[in-house]
Design a protein that fits this description.
four-stranded antiparallel β-sheet; 2 helices; mainly beta; 2 domains; binds zinc ion
């Protein structure tokens, strides 16, 4: 039987391949679509002075007594996927269309892999995932 959690789809491309890093204890975390990069962050909501907003001000700070704030990035530029040997992958979201500096930095930071490491950038355009491939070597300067 599938749990509710497993049925979550990407809001944008409807992929079921979501990566979740949510702290079950606090409810804070990060969820990202591994196909298009659509993502959201869950954080304890703070006021303009940086104080947590409590549901019941007569009680202290606890996961049950704070509001959770969800910040969506529904339309990122894309997602950068690095294929490492043995079927392992690394993922990095390109939030903005002018994130080429981020991409260059990301690729440069992949130090432990060889120069043939393949890097793919997925973008969700007109209802389809479009992939562009790079070799790390092409980006090293
Ligand atoms: Zn998606």
């Amino acid at each position: 039987m599938k749990s509710e959690k497993e049925k979550i789809k990407c809001l944008r491309c409807k992929s079921l391949k979501l990566w979740e890093d949510v702290d079950e204890r606090t409810g804070e975390g990060f969820v990202m679509c591994l196909d298009c990069g659509c993502n959201f962050t869950l954080k304890w909501k703070q006021d303009e002075n940086g104080y947590y907003i409590l549901k019941d001000t007569s009680k202290g700070i606890s996961p049950e007594n704070v509001l959770i704030e969800k910040t969506d990035i529904k339309y990122p530029y894309g997602i950068c996927i690095t294929r490492i040997s043995k079927g392992q992958y690394e993922f990095g979201v390109l939030q903005e269309s002018n994130d080429s500096d981020f991409l260059r930095q990301y690729i440069n930071d992949i130090m432990i892999y060889d120069d043939k490491t393949e890097i793919k950038v997925n973008r969700y355009i007109n209802g389809k995932i479009k992939s562009e491939y790079f070799l790390r070597n092409d980006w090293k300067k």
